[in-house]
Write a structure and sequence with these properties.
alpha/beta; Rossmann fold; Arc Repressor Mutant, subunit A; 42% helix; 3 domains; Helicase, Ruva Protein, domain 3; 330 residues; five-stranded parallel β-sheet; 14 helices
Length: 330
């Protein structure tokens, strides 16, 4: 692992095998025991049609693992359909999932085929399942159990042969206790749970990921970068990475954009300030405190043990602050 990656601006040179993606799971970088445990579970569950619930902090790669399960399954030649339950307005999500007939509601000028129907003989990823509205949860439970549903405004029953994978950064068991999520649906979804480790629990992979992202962006931007400086790498390895792999990727992309020579350096003010006991500005201190609290609550905002309660804020005020400070809650 101490070997330094060797790569140049317009094309990669020969790299030590450890820096390459897993040949069985292209795109997944790392050799840490924590990641290998996850991949062992992927190998076990992929050939089955079992429902999988992937839990992990924001930025840990839940979608990547879901796609790896699909590509290693007997459904690999079928569609891999994704829907983010948190990104679609409440009034539209039912139509997105189950489809609608023409005239089902105002503006429904044509039939819409929903994601469950599009994923027939393939895999459907329900991302951020913890954000699914309570009123839709019984309908999801029915299609999970019976593999059939009706389009909005339709009289006929639609049958679908689909494997469902769900992903969330939320604590669904706690949401059940707070009556924000149905217990029977949780039982149905968590047939085979997979917990993704945060990046701070797989420090062995930081160097591999940093080299991978630096090479990727150096090639894309045609920068003549040949290596990451020892100081920069040490700073990367010291950071706690509350945003996990996604945050690391963003840091490396920005650093490559700002690079001026063959050795990739970075002052990384955000890293320095977040590790410092005295952040430079009030905004930085507030952002750091909110991120730390979100880590402790597993990303849960509301409820008795949520971040809003711990911070002494109304949930809506916390969401507003997070948007202003650029804190992703996706």
């Amino acid at each position: 692992m101490a070997a330094q990656a060797t790569w140049a601006g317009d094309r990669p040179a020969i790299i030590h095998d450890a820096f390459l993606p897993d040949r069985e799971f292209p795109g997944i970088i790392g050799t840490s025991p924590a990641l290998r445990d996850v991949l062992d579970l992927v190998r076990i569950v992929a050939p089955t049609d079992a429902t999988v619930l992937i839990n992990g902090e924001t930025g840990t790669g839940k979608e990547v693992i879901a796609e790896a399960i699909h590509k290693s399954s007997n459904r690999a030649n079928g569609p891999f359909v994704k829907v983010n339950c948190a990104a679609i307005p409440a009034g539209l999500l039912e139509s997105e999932l189950f489809g609608h007939e023409r005239g089902a509601f105002t503006g429904a000028i044509a039939r819409n085929i929903g994601r469950f129907e599009r994923a027939n003989r393939g895999t459907l990823l329900l991302d951020e399942i913890g954000d699914l509205q309570l009123e839709l949860q019984p309908k999801l439970l029915r299609v999970m159990q019976e593999r059939q549903f009706e389009r909005l405004g339709g009289a006929g029953t639609v049958h679908t042969d689909v494997r469902v994978i769900c992903a969330t950064h939320r604590n669904l068991a706690q949401m059940v206790n707070e009556r924000q999520f149905r217990a029977d649906l949780l039982y149905r979804l968590s047939v085979f749970p997979i917990e993704l480790p945060p990046l701070r629990n797989r420090p062995e992979d930081i160097r591999l990921l940093a080299d991978h992202f630096a090479m990727k962006y150096a090639v894309r931007m045609r920068r003549g970068i040949t290596a990451i400086s020892k100081e920069f790498m040490a700073a990367l390895e010291r950071h706690s990475w509350p945003g996990n792999v996604r945050e690391l990727q963003n840091v490396l992309e920005r650093s490559v954009i700002l690079s001026t020579g063959p050795l990739l350096n970075g002052a990384l003010p955000e890293l320095t300030q977040m590790k410092s006991s005295a952040p430079v500005t009030l905004g930085e201190a507030e952002r750091s405190h909110i991120l730390h609290t979100l880590q402790k609550t597993g990303g849960v905002l509301g409820g008795r043990n949520g971040a809003a309660m711990r911070l002494g804020l109304p949930r809506t005020t916390l969401i507003s602050k997070m948007k202003r400070l650029g804190i992703d809650h996706g």
